[in-house]
Amino acid sequence: xxxxxxKLVAPLAIGAxxxxxxxxxxxxxxxxxxxxxxxxxxxxxxxxxxxxxxxALNWGVDLELRPYSDEKIVAxxxxxxxxxxxxxxxxxGRGFNPFTGTxxxxxxxxxxxxxxxxxxxxxxxxxxxLMKSGxxxxxxxxxxxxxxxxxxxxxxxxxxxxxxxxxxxxxxxKSQAVMVESIGASPVTATIANFGSMFNNGAVDVxxxxxxxxxxxxxxxxxxxxxxxxxxxLVQLTLQVLIRPSKFxxxxxxxxxxxxxxQYDRNMAEITKSTEAIKPEYWxxxxxxxxxxxxxxxxxxxxxxxxxxxxxxxxLKFLSRVRCELDASLTECTAKDRE
Length: 339
Fold this sequence. Notes:
By secondary structure, the chain is α/β, with parallel strands linked by helices. Helix content is about 45%, strand content about 20%. The protein has helices spanning about 1-25, 45-60, 70-80, 90-95, 100, 110-120, 160, 175-180, 195-200, 220-225, 250-260, 265-275, 290-305, 315-325; strands at about 30-35, 60-70, 85-90, 130-135, 135-150, 165-170, 185-190, 205-210, 230-245, 285. Strand 1, helix 2 (about 45-60) and strand 2 (about 60-70) form a beta-alpha-beta unit. The radius of gyration is 23 Å and the shape is globular.
């Protein structure tokens, strides 16, 4: 009798499980996630977002990932509503959320210890209200690496030496042109798609780029035998994940921010790998004295960009507070014009 019951019950149980799984899949909200990765589908960002997609299933969302190597298209598709979700740089994200977009401001995060502390705070529920701006919400911020000046002449290693040089500036980021003009250099408009080739073919003398772009864009061609990479990160780039919260379940944003922050070490390992892949002979060391000079010059530029409405003052104040928490001896901590 028991054997007969088992034969009857087993198919029923399997059928019930199948129905339950189908119902669970049907309950998932299907959304389109457009991902910017300079390398495309085989790049580290897209790979990380594939893991993110698996996590999102637990939060009630089934994401269809679409890779793009042109960030401008991602932003346009997201704004148009073709993409429900987007992964873009903080530079581009400033147009959606000025607060988080000001993370990628010149000289505001001098090293990775400060970046780590900043991202930890931004992932906390207490700062969740600042993640929303208009119809958009930032649901994750990850490190994308420091942007270094890459020069075609190693003698371009001080602020004064930059004067008169042609420097590529991204067409959508007003802060770069303002900064370049302030040091007496000539800004040359570029896009993410062509700034590398402009450097390689000699159209510009200087570009700013993260280590992860060095090999894919073959920037060693622009450096040649006389150039180098200035060993000072002018900007800490971030990757920011944005959604329209109205199209996602309640609580999705906070779960996402905490997950993205939990991947900090993984992201940093990728950045370290890319940085160490640049040959030692390419790096151009600058003195501590010159670094201090850079820091003050960049701080003054940030104040100007804040006053012009390009940078968000609240974020600059937040970043200054974190820097001074970690090192109270900084001259900016007692400056009258402190951010």
